[in-house]
Amino acid sequence: MDQNEIMEEEKEVVSKNFIEQIIEKDLEKGVYDTVHTRFPPEPNGGLHIGHAKAILLNYGLAKKYGGLFNMRFDDTNPTKEKIEFVESIKEDIQWLGADWEDRLYFASDYFPQMYEGAVKLIKKGKAYVCDLTAEQIKEYRGTLTEAGKDSPFRNRTVKENLKLFEDMKKGLYQEGEKVLRAKIDMASPNMNMRDPVIYRISHMSHHNTKDAWCIYPMYDFAHPIEDAIEGITHSICTLEFEDHRPLYDWVVKELEYERPPKQIEFAKLYLTNVVTGKRYIKKLVEDKTVDGWDDPRLVSIAALRRRGFTPESIQMFVDLCGISKSQSSVDYAMLEYCIREDLKLKKPRMMAVLDPVKLIIDNYPKGQVEYLEVQNNMENEQLGTRQVPFSRELYIEREDFMEEPPKKYYRLYPGNEVRLMNAYFVTCTGCVKDEWGNIIEVHCTYDKETKSGSGFQGRKVKGTIHWVGAETSIKAEVRLYENIVDEAKGVYKEDGSLNLNPNSLTVLKDCRLEPALSGAKPYDGYQFVRQGFFCLDAKDSREDSLVFNRIVSLKSSYKLPSTVK
Questions:
Q1: What is the pTM of this model?
Q2: What contacts 187, CB < 8 A, 6 or more positions away?
Q3: Contact by Cβ (8 Å): 216, 77
Q4: What gap in Å lies between CA 92 and CA 78, rounded to an integer?
């Protein structure tokens, strides 16, 4: 092997994240002969951008090593879970492109095995029924500096524990009256190992098992069993579960699974100045501050999809963030950078006037409609061209005309000449106002020799403005979004509530768009000249009343850190 080959090999090793390095060592040593991962959301709310990192990481690892990826709902808590979240989560994950094929599972499918596992622990003297209340259990657990003390029910006999646990299953006790606890070590320096509760009573109907059970396993007990049953090799989770790993390993060891899975933790994805907590989003939804979990001001996956983000842009974002064990925050502007990069060569560049005022070309023939050939994307010729109707009366942006302009204002004002994009040079001759002094018409003349694409080589103008035909344009509602929280004040107030931004949504009702946009379908994306990238809203838009969401503005001062270029 020559020096170049050695350097390339070393570079490849360094470029692998720590999880990939662990996996490759396990495969090399024969700990596992394949890679099998899973994504296990609890169906108690929608998924957000942080979950996207976990989904794409788990799916990506399985794909990279020729393994399998499971989709599993961790539905062990019927008090919070709903079937509507099951369906929305499935839709989110399919949209991101993570394919679980025929491996869709529910933790509740394994309730019989979990119950049998609990019975096995009781028979081994490793679990007991405890009558302490939740408050007493917390008190008995001790502190980080003081050991806990044994429950007075810790030494019940195996026979008594089996009978009590069976009676719990039969529904003979009320919620909170009894729990099943693992018998581990009340003096452990790890609080999670101080006889944790592994089963509790809940007299609630479950979305999947209905009323078959009134006792439910705790997450820390259920999760390793689910992984082991499904043959998961690497159980990838976030850093808050690092202290739970000894309990995870204890469960699979005591239940004697032949090939126990390995838990590996990585750092969560934190975005600056956004709301990701389910509790906060739920309150925003219930208070009708937003119009659902898919409101485009949120960073839930459903909201990002509705706003117009693409799976490719989110994959790019996750790749740029990388995988590590160090907690850090990422600027939301990086996510915006990724969607701009993804869309700029994919989407046609259309003309849309969001705050219209009529422009009348006095010397253009009345009743004449001229079709101009316009390139759909100057940076991508493969997107082809379209025909745009041009006529005597047009709409332009209100801000593109001023009676008394400041210096370096190169758009329309009396006596100034500009180019109408893809059309002609026009010279402003004046304006018409209503009785309140509002400008309702701008007048100009055109030079027919200056048609775009005609090869005109005469004078030059500094300003170019976009337009749409007054008679041929279509009306639409356009929604402009800002962060739902006030970035200047921070996300949270002192009392823990959110610092909401009163300007997070601006609705423009009478926008005028090119007629070609009448054929837009839900989620179709476009670049509106000078305005940003937009997509047709999938929830509120109708054939006779189009609604477009701004995905992102065109430019940002954000620059990628040199480490990720």
A1: 0.91
A2: 147, 148, 194
A3: yes
A4: 22
- Cα(414)–Cα(412) distance, rounded to whole angstroms? 7
Query: What whole-number distance in Å separates Cα of residue 457 and Cα of residue 479?
Result: 40
The structure tokens 């509120």 sit at 540
Token duo for residue 289 = 């501050």
Report the sign of the C-alpha dihedral through residues 301, 307, 311, 313, in that order.
Answer: negative
pLDDT over 50 at 221, yes or no: yes
Render the burial of 175-196: b for 16+ CB within 10 Å, e for the rest. Answer: eeebbbbbbbebebeeebbbbb
CA dihedral 146, 151, 156, 158 (to 10 degrees): -60
Contact status, residue 127 vs residue 161, Cβ threshold 8 Å: yes
Question: Nearest 5°: phi and psi at 348?
Answer: -70, 150
Say yes or no to pLDDT of 9 above 50.
Answer: no
- 21 Cβ neighbours under 8 A, 6+ residues apart: 13
H/E run at residue 528: strand 525-528
Residue with tokens 């739970």: 244
Q: Is 150 left (phi over 0), alpha (psi -120 to 50) or beta?
A: beta
- Predicted confidence (pLDDT) per residue in 341-360, tens digit: 999 999 999 999 999 999 99
Between CA 546 and CA 518 the distance in angstroms is 8
Q: Which residue has the tokens 């740029």?
A: 320
Positive or negative CA dihedral for 381, 387, 391, 394?
A: negative
Q: With bands split at pLDDT 50, 70 and 90, how would you rate the model's confidence at 110?
A: very high
Query: Cα dihedral angle (380, 383, 384, 387), rounded to 10 degrees?
Result: -110
Cα 487 from Cα 64, distance rounded (Å):
39
Helix then strand count (H, E) for the chain reads 13, 27
Q: What is d(CA 255, CA 447) in angstroms, rounded to the nearest whole number?
A: 86
For residue 290, the 8-state DSSP code is: S
* DSSP label of 535: E
DSSP 542: B
Give the H or E element holding residue 477.
strand 474-481
Q: Which is nearest to 285 in space by CA: 270, 273, 297, 271? A: 297
The closest alpha carbon to 395, from 447, 473, 461, belongs to 473
Identity at 35, one-letter amino acid code: V
- Residue range 259-268, pLDDT digits in tens: 999 999 999 9
CA distance 289 to 114: 41
Separation between Cα atoms, residue 404 and residue 277, nearest integer Å: 49
What angle in degrees, to the nearest 10, is found between the helix axes of 332-343 and 311-321?
130
**Token pair 């026979």 is at which residue?**
159
